[in-house]
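Anyone able to model this chain together with nicotinamide-adenine-dinucleotide?
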Amino acid sequence: KKLGIALVGLGNYSTGQLAPALQETDYCYLAGIVTGTPSKVTEWKQKYNIPDKNVYNYDNFDQIASNKDIDIVYVVLPNALHAEYTIRAAQAKKHVICEKPMATSVEDCQRMIDACNKNNVKLSIGYRLHFEPHHQRVMELGQQQVYGPVKNIEANFSFVTDDPDQWRLDKELAGGGPLMDLGIYCVQGATYTVGQTPAAVTAQFGKVTKPTFFDEVEETITWQMEFPGGAVANCSTSYNGRGNRLFGRATKGSWELNPAFSYSGIQGKTSEGPMNLPNVNQQARQMDAFANCILENKQTSVPGEMGLRDVRVLMAIYEAARTGKKVMI
Ligand code: NAD
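re: yes, here you go
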């Protein structure tokens, strides 16, 4: 049996990545949509063969509880709305995938986990790179200490933002700037390289060069993470720069992904040469893995607890940047 997924929020990521990926999945399929924009409905219904009864808006969304076609609700809304829709989905007894960052506060993350536990549904975060071969190799190289213990990690994910009106620059909806959106990939990359949670962080806000864009959220931030085993990560992210790299160095060798965090075209090498690994449909693998967890009643490798841990690290990075002090986690 293929499990039915309903996408909540039909923005860029749902349209450009998730819906196409759901045409390549083996254990789940695109069964329904939830949208606040009626003009999108006809095209989605036709393109993906979605029946009227599986189309919801934000007001009647809770009626999804009685829809047998929908097993999983996938929340793909602006960050500050993740908590409300994850909790409503859990109350409708649907399993949930929630996009990153899980929420804009640790408290919201905890409420989401509690709601899913209480309603006996599974919760996972849209961490697609856990299912990507180059990143899986990095986890192996670092965590299995193939080149000895990890000493140093460098990560940067940045791009240039050109739309001043988007929700990503709105503190209320985004929770913060590039750290919430892109820096989270650096936090993730460093934590799965060493297989540990950072113990302490320091951080610095960068210069604001476009004050009309960045009057609410940071334009650039750099930060450092200390891991319990002694590894140190140096990271940066910006909405006004370029970078897409994850580097690791252990006592007897090093590795680098560049580009590291893209949907495709990831390239990797180690101090011994190219990784020669395939690029795959990351989102198809991610959604199939979660569907399998449900079908076989197994635990997801990217649970809500991981999303909460990462939001806790992000909040510590902001605190460190604001106060100029080292923040223990
Ligand atoms: P987007 O702006 O393209 O789409 C957001 C959607 O939410 C739109 O359809 C919009 O109409 C809807 N929406 C509902 N209520 C809204 C409100 N109050 N304000 C603004 N929009 C509202 O954004 P996106 O790029 O699709 O990102 C959505 C989520 O997916 C974010 O949490 C983002 O971090 C995440 N994302 C994850 C990845 C990934 O690789 N895992 C990639 C892109 C986005």
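DSSP finds nine helices and 15 strands in the chain.
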